[in-house]
Write a structure and sequence with these properties.
Layout lengths: L3 H9 L4 E5 L3 H9 L4 E4 L3 H4 L11 H14 L4 E5 L9 H13 L4 E3 L7 H9 L4 E6 L5 H4 L9 H17 L3 E5 L3 H10 L4 E4 L7 E4 L1 H4 L17 H17 L11
Parallel strand pairs: 1-2, 1-8, 2-3, 3-4, 4-5, 5-6, 6-7, 7-8
Length: about 260
Amino acid sequence: MVTTETIIAMKKKQEKIVCLTAYDYPCARILDESGIDIILVGDSAANVFAGEKYTLPITMEEMLYHAKVVSRAVENGLVIADMPFLSYQTSIRDAIYNAGRFLKVGACGVKLEGGAPIVETIKRLVDLGIPVMGHIGLTPQSIHKFGGYKLQGKTEEEGARLIKDAELLESAGCFSLVLEKIPSRLAKKITEAISIPTIGIGAGSDCDGQILVLHDILGLFENFTPKFVKKYAHIGDEIRRAVHQFKDEVKKGIYPDEKHSF
């Protein structure tokens, strides 16, 4: 069974860490059976599951439901739940309560977005025994601040700030750190500067691991495709084919036949 200690040890052994998102029982089961190290119950469910433009609208109750069904499916991987917008920014007390709720439904830890401003919150969570994954670079909950899904850390000043944030999050007790949409050279610097694993998404090949959204790599989410996404299948097309065949067979009276009747 994968634990936070397993993930930290993988960096020391230079073993790449593989992460994917999941929001439901069947997909989480497949990911776990496939040996995925970290299964993230991402607030990206707001986009690829619920059709929202941003991650901001998803609620604690909705995230708790996704975390519960994913945790029920996973026996080996490490389940981490995204803390949604306003579930931890309002106070340390709120962060403790909401993070604890994720653990109560089966998650093994939580992920928080941000650097220096949330260091004290992370310290308190870790002190209380709640594992925390950090997340810097493009943080989707701050999308209105950035003015879109833009590359972060482009200037020397921005890069220095992100390196400092990474060091602060390590000191606060994070067991790993997501680096999203930053230049590869900067991701390499951060990875070399800290002892905890970095998990890249649009951050190049020098990170200790990689994460993508499951619906993106399967071709199920078609609203837009970021540059860093590689589609490993086109399940959406296969679903359309099956649905059209079913519709056609029902219309023509082909289904159900004797084999599929009692």
